[in-house]
């Protein structure tokens, strides 16, 4: 009787262990997919803001966007915490929108008419995208 119960326990335990491993793998894949989606959405938002700006500049690890209405600048930057934000009207404005949270690093690198945006997530996944600078400022304005 003890042997039968032991065999039944082993037979029942094998599928439970396999299911547990599958569920863990599935959760990791969902988290990776969700993170990938949010980062791609952040890149789409950044691209949209760049296209809607009168001109663009990169300075102090910020994307500086001149508004078409000539009422100032908007800034895309990493805030003091772990988020990429759009700051409206001033570098440290109280009017901000979060673009992406839970980032570890946000880095901008300019090379002539192109700049690269690198985002490293807290989980360690790095993402990188390049954007063209179509319109630059022609005269010296202060940010």
UniProtKB/TrEMBL annotation:
Family matches, as Pfam families: ComGF
Protein's UniProt name: Prepilin-type N-terminal cleavage/methylation domain-containing protein
Source organism per UniProt: Clostridium kluyveri (strain ATCC 8527 / DSM 555 / NBRC 12016 / NCIMB 10680 / K1)
